[in-house]
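Hey team,

Filing this mostly as a record. A colleague (T.K.) asked me to run one chain through the structure pipeline before their review meeting, and I want the input and output archived in the tracker in case anyone asks later how it was produced. No errors, nothing strange. Just documentation.

Input sequence:
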Amino acid sequence: MKNSIKIVHWVPRILCILAILFIAMFSLDSFDPKLTLGQQLLGFLMHNIPTLILIAILIVSWKWEIIGGILFILIGVGMSPFIFMHNYAMNHSIGMSLIVILTINFPFIIVGSLFIISHLLKRKKLKTVQAEL
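Output structure:
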C-alpha cells in the first residue's frame, strides 16, 4: 500500500511536467528570422501564457492535490470546445480535431484525476493510521 501511494503521488506530477513541456514546445514557432528580436520575444511570451498558467496550477496541485486536480480537470474539459472549434476551422476534419483534443487536453484530465486519487488515498491512509491509534 505504501509503494502504491508513492507511485500515485509522483505519477501525476511527472506526467504534468511532461505535458506542460509539450505545450511549451508550441511556443517555439514564435521565432521567425523575418521578425525583430523584440517581436520574437513578445510572441514567445504570448505563446507561453498557457504554459505559465499550467505551471501555476501545478504549484497549487503540489500542495493542495484536490484543488489542483479539480483545476486540471476543469482546464482539460473547459478548453476542449475552443480547441476543437479552432482546429476544425483550420482542417475541417472532426477526426483530426478530436485527435488534437486527445493529445493536448486529455493528459491534463488524466493528471487531474490522478491528483484527486492521490489525495483520496492519502486521506484514507491517514484515517487508517488514526483509527489504529
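Quick notes for T.K.: The mean pLDDT is 92. Residues 2-132 form one domain.
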